[in-house]
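hey can u check if this looks right to u? its 71 residues, i copy pasted from the old doc so theres a chance i mangled smth
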Amino acid sequence: GGPQFGLEAVQEVREEAEVAMTLKVRASRYAACAARLRELHPYEVPQIAGWPLARVDPDYARWARGGEEPA
């Protein structure tokens, strides 16, 4: 069989507005950024996710690394 997941019983149901946010940070700064988000977020376990970029436009990649401006 596949993985099994369980959820703890929730003592209270709350309805709150949520906002999705996308941040772009260098891989070397990810841990510090995630730590700060955890400090600031009101949820006990906020959703914080990161991923490596498999495909990036070459002009954007050059700009993001501090090189020349995109054409």
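The CA atoms of residues 5 and 45 lie 17 Å apart.
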